[in-house]
Amino acid sequence: MFTTLLLSALLVTAGPAKPDLKTPFEKGNGNQTATYAEAIDWYQKFDAAYDEVKMVPYGMTDAGRPLHLVIVSTDKDFDPASIHRKNKRILLIQNGIHPGEPEGIDATMMLARDYLQNKKLRKQLDNVVLIIIPVYNIGGALNRNSHTRTNQNGPESYGFRGNARNLDLNRDYIKTDSRNAQTFHDIFREWNPDVFMDNHTSNGADYQHVMTLIPTQHNKMNPTLATYTTGKMLPALYEGMKQDKYPMVPYMNTKDETPDNGIIGFMESPRYDTGYTTLYNTIGFVPETHMLKPFNQRVDATYKLMENMIETIHRDADEIGEARAKANQQTLVQQQFPLGWKLDTTQVKQIPFLGYEAKYKPSEVSGAERLYYDRKSPYSKMIDYYDEFVPTVTVQKPVAYIVPQAWHEVIDRLKQDKVELKQLTKDTTIALDSYYITDYKTVPRAYEGHYLHSDVQLRTEHMPRHFFKGDYVVYLNQPTNRFVVEVLEPQATDSYFNWNFFDSILMQKEYYSSYVFEDLAAEILKQNPALRKQLEEKKKADAGFAKDPRAQLDFVYRHSPHYEPTHMLYPVARLMQDMELPL
């Protein structure tokens, strides 16, 4: 009896046993990654073990399972508005957007645990809050196999790049077709992170480096943030990784077949995560470990980079906060917005690179010469790095856009991003600038569920337009300014026009019968000598047109009142001068 009571007393004194927080990776052989179920189960235990941790199911994904957000906040404050008021920095770490590239899933679990258990590391969270998406592409993570990452050295099994709808989620940030992206927008806009990090594995050339890095391309960043990022943050990360025995190099976006002739900075448009996050002045990074390095090395390098990232954010917390505040204020009053970019090949710098000699030998499959990298011939040398881009298209910000309510898919996406919208309270006619689409190119095959447009050419006309009660007015005096311009200006690389949300305007709805219109066209030309002159001049200038009666008849039709004015008229109008509207 006494022994039983003593044991009971000891158990009460000792308290409940702490859960086992070793990760599936740590329990394995160094070549295994956590499954989706294992990762969520681990984070549930992590949440239960620490009051400083909270795991929240945010919203649904295409796989029918919720997207979780794990918050690590040492003062147990889990309210984003309150955290920002305390002038703490927020780092959003995302894993598993491509579940076949899973090292971030495993590295982040260990990192979050270690930062709470290690006093020295924990101190860095005094002014930094971690928010973690354990696995973003849940559908891809559930589609587990050992073969689809053909060029990759481990792990033993992993997820698939496409999500439950076979979408590449790192092409979906602007078009937002997936429920995953919709939920991400909810998380991102609510938490407004200062820094974003999305962990990946590379494809491409072979070289000695374990880790490569894509930072948000500096030319497209707000200048204040670009100055800090390139002048202070990136040098700290590069030096830290060098000290950790993982010398880093920019992502191997090679100029030619091999890195020897130089690499090019990656200009990510808003279809990509860091292209989207920079629209809100969040500093973004995509780490890319090298596919051919052992999985345990890739996990360790990812861990070390995140560790250096947190240390840098902790050190520069005030400077980052001040730079973002300044950038946000500048975005509010910014007048000119670049919409397209091209590489400036006249500007190049040299960077250190640890490579392997590229050689050629006969293919055992085709007999033709094939490339291979000789690991017995490593080298260290300087290579060219092209990372300066210049705008190709720039647009003047309007006072406001007016978006007809009929385009509800566009309105829904603006609301998703918390864009402030006002609505007309009555029908009204307004004279403003409107675009006509005069030309564009379209891909011949579907790309991520769309037939993507590009190289859009426009004609601007100042004209009266009739709008209806309930149509939306989007003023350009809000934090979402840059997002709004990027999606509503049709020339922007990832505009909603280019992603096919306005394609119905590209098709004529009314036509004519030639034999009937012939007489009417003749009468139109009699009454309009100027049009007759235009027709004759075009015949002289264009031999093909002169031989084509149908083209000539169509020319008259398109210059007559019978041609529908809405054909190729971009529905979103630009209000260039402030005026009183019925709102």
Which helices and strands appear, and what pairs or packs with what?
Layout: H1 2-14, H2 24-27, H3 36-49, E1 53-60, E2 66-72, H4 80-85, E3 89-94, H5 103-117, H6 119-123, E4 128-133, H7 138-142, H8 179-191, E5 195-198, E6 200-201, E7 211-215, H9 223-243, E8 249-250, E9 263-264, H10 273-277, E10 283-289, H11 295-315, H12 317-333, E11 336-343, E12 349-362, E13 369-386, E14 389-396, E15 400-403, H13 408-416, E16 422-423, E17 428-442, E18 453-467, E19 472-475, H14 481-488, H15 514-527, H16 529-541, H17 543-546, H18 549-558, E20 573-575
Parallel strand pairs: 3-4, 3-5, 5-10, 6-10, 7-8, 9-13
Antiparallel strand pairs: 1-2, 2-4, 7-10, 11-14, 12-13, 15-19, 15-20, 16-19, 17-18
Helix pairs in contact: 3-5, 5-11, 9-11, 9-12, 15-18
